[in-house]
Amino acid sequence: MKKRHLLAPGPTPVLPDALLAMARPILYHRGPEYEALLGRVRDGLKFLFQTKHEVLLFTSSGTGGMEGTVVNTLSPGDRALVIRSGKFGERWGEICEAYGLQPQYIDVEWGRAVDPDTVAAALAADPAIKVVFATHTESSTGVLHPIEAIARIVGKTPAILVVDAIMSLGVADLPMDAWGVDVVVGGSQKGLMIPPGLAFCAVSDKAWAMVQQSRLPKFYFNFLAERKSLEKNQNTFTPAVSLVMALHESLAAVRAEGLAALFARHDRLARATRAAVRALGLELFADPPTPALTAVAAPPGIEAGAIVKTMRTAHGITISGGQAQLKGKIFRLAHLGYADESDVVLCLAALERTLTDLGYPIKLGEGVRAVQEVLSQAG
Amino acid sequence: MKKRHLLAPGPTPVLPDALLAMARPILYHRGPEYEALLGRVRDGLKFLFQTKHEVLLFTSSGTGGMEGTVVNTLSPGDRALVIRSGKFGERWGEICEAYGLQPQYIDVEWGRAVDPDTVAAALAADPAIKVVFATHTESSTGVLHPIEAIARIVGKTPAILVVDAIMSLGVADLPMDAWGVDVVVGGSQKGLMIPPGLAFCAVSDKAWAMVQQSRLPKFYFNFLAERKSLEKNQNTFTPAVSLVMALHESLAAVRAEGLAALFARHDRLARATRAAVRALGLELFADPPTPALTAVAAPPGIEAGAIVKTMRTAHGITISGGQAQLKGKIFRLAHLGYADESDVVLCLAALERTLTDLGYPIKLGEGVRAVQEVLSQAG
C-alpha cells in the first residue's frame, strides 16, 4: 500500500468540503437555489480578487478565460504588447495571432522576471498599444513577475494591463483594485482547491470601456453578455453547476483563513521548499521565485524526467517536469492550494530518496532538516 | 420534509456512481492514470455516438461545442444553411453571425419539424452551401427533427450536415456513421447523467477535410489540436478532470444498459408522459415529439409559470417553463438521463395536484392511470 500525493502545479488536491459539495444533488441552474448560491459566489470572488468589480465566470480551462480576454478587449488591427518569458506568456501571443493580431513582444529569458522599464519603453515607443498582456506566476519557469510595478507604468497610459493569474490567484498577493490591474484571469484548480473547469475574468472600468468597443468575434466567451446574466445571478450558458457548488465551499474556506494568512502560508511553504533544495546542493531555476511552486534544475547527469518518474512510481508523489524547451532540464515541486506543511515534508523526504535511488550523492535528511528549520522559525 | 426531484431538461440528476467518482482523489491530467482513463472514455464515446471517428472533448457547455463546430468548419464568406425552429436552432445562426457569416435560414414554425424537402430545395438553389446546421431535439419546443432524411439529402451534396444532439445524445437513436451525419455535438448533462461542463464533437472524414481548410479564427476550440492531443490520450488544455472521471462511470452504465434498451426506456417514459397529459385534457405542443421531454401547452387561463412554480414550491418537483416567445405558454416535463418509471409517476401525480391547486378542473388519478397503462403494456 502506498498513499498517493498530488504535488503538481494544478490540479491541486481538492478541498474535502468541496468534494462533499459535488456529491450533493445537483442544482437546476435556472432555479432560485442556484441563483442564491451564485450570488454568494460572486461576493466571494470579489473578496478573493480584491476588487469591487464583477468577476466573470466561464465553464472552461483558464485558457478559455485568456481567449475571452483577448477577443473582448481588442479589435482587428489593434496593437498589443505581450510579455513572453515562458509557455504561458507565449500563450497570450498565440491567442492574439490566432485572431489575426500582430502583437509586439518583450522576450525575457526563461527563469527571469521582466524588467518593468522595458514595458515603459515599449509603451513609449508605440503609444497605440491598447493592451499589455502579462503573467503573474509563469508556471513553466516558476517565476513571479513584478505586476505592481508594471501596473504603475501601464496605469499612466491609455492601455490596459491584463494579467494571467491562473497559477497565483489565492497564492500570491494581487490586489487588483489597489494596484490598478485591469483584467485578472484566474482558474479553479490552483489556489482555489477545486477541480479544473472554471475560468474567472475580473474586469476594471477602464477595461469595460474597451470591451464596449471590441470588434473581434466572440460568442461563448462574451463578457458583456455574461455580466448582464450575472447581474441576475445567472450564467449565459449552462454552467458547470457541480464546480460552482464546489467553488462556494472553497470561497468560504478562503474567507475563513483570510487572505493574509493564505499568502503567508504559501510563502512559508515556498521558503521551506527552496531552503531544502539548496540544502541538498541543487540549483533553483527561477529568480525571483513564485510562492506557488519551486522549479529546480536537474542536477548534472540526471534527466529531470527520471526524477519525476521515480518520485511517482517509487514514492507515490506526482510532481511535474519541465515544459517545451525546459523538458528534461527542470522539475517542479508545487505547494499551492490544498497544501500544508506536511506536504512539503513528505515531498522533500521523497526527493531525498529519489536522488539517492538515482545515484546522485546527497546526505539523507538534509532537505527535510532545512524544511523543519524554516517552518519552525515561521511558527 | 419534502424530497426534491429534478425533472428539468438538463442538468438531469447525476448517476450515483458518477457522484462517487467525482469524490475520489483528483487525477493529474498529464499522468498515466488519467491517460488510461481517457483512453477508455474515447472508446465509450465512440460507442455512444455510434461512430468509428474520434469524438472530441471540450471543457465547456454544449454551446462551446457548437461554436467550435462553426469556427472549425467554415471560413470567412462561406455559405451556410441554418434550420431554425426554436431557441437552439437560432443559436446556430447567432454563432455564424457572430463570426461575420450570413447564413441562409429555413424557418420552421416553433413546435413543428422541418420538412426535409425544404433542405433539398435550399441546397439545390445555392450549391455553394458548405454546412447545414440542424438540431436533433429542439429543447425549446420538444420537437424531434427528421435527421435521417436530412442526412440522406445532404449526403448527396458536397455540404456537410452538423447536428446539435445535445438534448438527445443517449436518448434518441442517432447512428452517426450509418446515417452519414458529419458532425454530432453533445453535452454531458443530459442523457449522459453527469453534471454540465463537457461538450463533445464527433467529426466525420468529410467534415475533417473541411476542418483542414477552415480559416475562421479559433484557439480554445481547436479541432485539429484536440484530435492530435487525444491520439496521445491527452487534452490540449487542462480538462475538467472530475467530470471526465464521472463520464467514465456514465459511459460504463450506458454500455451496461445497451443502446437499444436506453432508447426504449426513453421512448417508454415519453409515451407514458404524453398519454397522461392527454388524459388530463391538456394539449401536447410538439409534433413530432422528442423522447427527451414533453412540452405541454398551458391550459386556458393558466400561466405556465404558475404551474412551474407550484410544482416546485408545493410539490418539490423542478420542471421548466417556456423560453423566449414560448415563455408563459408552455411547460416542459423532462424524462431523460437518470430517469425511470417512478419519475414519470411522481411527476404526473404532482402535475395533477398542481392543476387542482390552481383551480383547473381535472379528475385526480387520471394522469397517473394513463402512465400506469402505458408502462404496464410496455412491460
From TrEMBL, chains A, B:
Presence of keyword Transferase: yes
PTM-bearing positions, type N6-(pyridoxal phosphate)lysine: 190
InterPro entries, alphabetized: Aminotrans_V_dom, Aminotrans_V_PyrdxlP_BS, PyrdxlP-dep_Trfase, PyrdxlP-dep_Trfase_major, PyrdxlP-dep_Trfase_small, SP_NH2Trfase/AEP_transaminase
Cofactor(s), names only, from the UniProt record: pyridoxal 5'-phosphate
Keywords recorded for this protein, A-Z: Aminotransferase, Pyridoxal phosphate, Transferase
Aminotransferase class V domain span: 28-324
Gene3D superfamilies referenced in this protein's UniProt entry, alphabetically: Aspartate Aminotransferase, domain 1, Type I PLP-dependent aspartate aminotransferase-like (Major domain)
Enzyme Commission (EC) number: 2.6.1.45
Transmembrane in keyword set: no
GO biological process assignments: glycine biosynthetic process, by transamination of glyoxylate
Residues holding substrate: 332
GO molecular function: alanine-glyoxylate transaminase activity; L-serine-glyoxylate transaminase activity; L-serine-pyruvate transaminase activity
The organism's place on the tree of life at top rank: Bacteria
Family membership: Belongs to the class-V pyridoxal-phosphate-dependent aminotransferase family.
Name the record gives this protein: Class V aminotransferase
Taxonomy of the source species: Bacteria, Candidatus Methylomirabilota, Candidatus Methylomirabilia, Candidatus Methylomirabilales, Candidatus Methylomirabilaceae
